[in-house]
Amino acid sequence: MKHTHLKPIKSSMPLRFNQEWIDGLFSEVDVVWVGFSGGVDSHVLLHAIVSQLTAQQRRKLAVIHIHHGLSDHADSWLSHCEQVCQKLDVRFVAKRVQLEAQASVEDAARNARYQAFEQIMTSKEVLLLAHHGDDQAETVLFRLLRGTGGKGLSGMPRMRAIGVEGAYLVRPLLDISKVSIESYARQEKLKWIQDDSNADERFTRNFLRQRVVPILKERFPKMEQNIASGAKRIETDYLMLSRFAERQLAKWCNEYGGLDLSFLSEESLEERLFWLRHFLQNKSISLPQLQLENVEQMLSGREDRHPEFKLKNGRIMRHQNFIYFLPLDQEVTLAPLNKDEILKRSFDEVLVSGCNGCVLGERPEGAVLSFENGNSRKLKKWLNDLQVPSWWRNHLPYIFIDTELVAIGSLWRHPDYPHVKVEWRLSGELPLLVSLE
Ligand SMILES: Nc1ncnc2c1ncn2[C@@H]1O[C@H](COP(=O)(O)OP(=O)(O)OP(=O)(O)O)[C@@H](O)[C@H]1O
Questions:
Q1: In testing the pocket of ligand 1, which one of 34, 42, 162, 190 has its CB within 8 Å of the most ligand atoms?
Q2: Are 332 and 429 in contact (CB under 8 A)?
Q3: Which pTM value belongs to this model?
Q4: Out of 152, 291, 377, 416, which residue is the most buried by the measure of CB atoms under 10 Å away?
């Protein structure tokens, strides 16, 4: 999407967005969502954006309010948001979420909120959130206190992908201070809700905001700007480092996405941890240092063992001398097969839809699809040589014509049967044969 390359958003007091950015954004996307809690920050964001839109652009704007059900006032917050949107004449969507039991209610609410955002957004859509400069400083401080690394110290990104491909989350107020936001709200006579939990100091962020930041500001009056600009520098450095790591890792990974550990064996422990961290970060997994060290230890065991490390969203596994991350959604794919179902569905679908209008009768005579390979030692060795991870093997389709094995997925084809071409990939619930010619 082109707007990712647009100049940084310049907003100043009275809060006005760079018109070029607004026009570029609305011309490229189908829907611009605003995450609206009903609080002052998101109300200002919504109001400021709406006041700069043409009627045509306004039709692309939609507001999303997440009802967490945590506060006794949650229903009245929802009605408040709805009324604000009615007055501004913009589309309003509310979504109720169920919180998962988690140690921190804050985390549970945030996770449920982002999941809801992801569910609602489709490609060519953008979600604007009202995090501002003070939020950024608090975030960096908070992460520093929790012992974060370079990625965490870069703070919240101005823009990142969210959910489906082509959907983005943007934070246009990161350069604006809370003081400026409140001043805009007073000037425009906005009404907003006060979330009672914002005063609760059992939540670390509130504790930092209320107790720690005021003391720091006595000595460092420009604390927020300084932290935010430091975070920006770290963000750039970290981006460069990640690109470098990604390029290098691509050279060390096999076609199944496994990282070849033999490249790491000569490196120091620090370097092994560095590569491991970046390999996992490329898969959107960020592990605390201690867990990362545990994974590293697990990997340095004997090669004939197949250790695995369970995470909430998948498993880190080693096969031969490669490390893989298998996300939960792929595990569903790899769950034991209902072979009858697959044989019936895949094969007929292939012949009906996979190869451009073939009809059932065109199935090569005597062709049979099977997911049983007989487990011959020769085959096992061959699959080992090809580095096919063991957990995929029972999901490889074997094509027989009469009793002769003529193809194994897209990995192998019998030289005497050049007309049999199988394209195979793991997709959705069932391994799919893409075409059989
Ligand atoms: N319940 C919600 N529904 C929709 N968007 C939300 C909700 N809660 C937060 N957001 C979005 O995420 C941003 C950051 O949330 P955070 O909880 O850090 O701030 P906040 O104190 O809720 O901000 P605000 O002053 O807008 O209430 C909000 O400004 C808003 O854009």
A1: 42
A2: yes
A3: 0.72
A4: 152
